[in-house]
Design a protein that fits this description.
The chain is elongated and about 140 Å long. It is of the alpha+beta class and about 220 residues long. The protein has a six-stranded antiparallel β-sheet, with no helix packed on it. The protein is about 20% helix and about 15% strand. It contains three helices and six strands.
């Protein structure tokens, strides 16, 4: 019996770690009810933490420390809700990703962008040759012209004197300058946050956040 009570005490100390409260201490009280080994069944999933919590409940029920159902017992030992986490902002500057808590002025370097670049992959295989295009349609033959009348052979004339080089023509007038194009739309400022397991961004003024990449890529 002393070993069982000692085991219950150790498991209850673990429960205080899980829930961060002191409600469980109230369960370890002296009762005159005869202990029973018939523990109420539960349909809860059995993760590693749930299994440990259910084992504590079983020992407490068998020792007579509680006669609540499993769900009622869990609610009775649940601690107060913790404080909300602080919002984190991210910035890409100076070749690195930096972060700060919302409202702070100092930025802390998280990781250099160079560290996110992996080794160069092997060259990809050459693509297959494309299919030859179809031959174009042959054009129609033109109509043959009529033969001209043969002229009489003329007398060979004397070689003429070479003419003087002509004067260079004047340069053409420069064309008018084209009209200036319309200015492009200004780029929009973005905001970055870490939300759970992803780095997300949104345009300033928008409400929708979009995944940028998983934080697993930074490990």
């Amino acid at each position: 019996m002393m070993k069982r009570l000692g085991r219950i005490f150790i498991l209850m100390m673990l429960m205080l770690t899980f829930y961060g409260c002191d409600k469980l201490i109230g369960l370890v009280t002296t009762q005159t009810t005869t202990p029973t080994t018939s523990v109420p069944t539960t349909t809860h999933t059995t993760s590693a933490i749930d299994s440990a919590i259910y084992e504590i409940y079983t020992l407490a029920y068998q020792s007579g420390a509680t006669f609540l159902s499993y769900d009622e017992w869990r609610e009775s030992v649940r601690g107060p809700e913790g404080l909300p986490g602080r919002e984190v902002r991210l910035l890409v500057e100076g070749g690195a990703i930096k972060w700060q808590y919302q409202g702070d002025s100092a930025w802390t370097e998280l990781i250099k962008l160079q560290d996110l670049i992996g080794p160069q992959g092997n060259p990809g295989a050459d693509g297959r040759d494309g299919v030859d295009g179809r031959d174009g349609v042959n054009g129609q033959d033109g109509i043959n012209g009529q033969d001209g009348v043969d002229g009489r052979d003329g007398i060979d004339g004397q070689d003429g004197v070479d003419g003087r080089d002509g004067i260079d023509g004047q340069d053409g007038i420069n064309g008018q300058d084209g009209t200036d194009g319309i200015d492009g739309v200004d780029g929009r400022e973005i905001e970055l946050i870490v939300n759970g397991t992803h780095l997300e961004y949104r345009y300033t003024g928008d409400t929708l956040w979009t995944h940028l990449f998983s934080l697993d890529l930074l490990t």
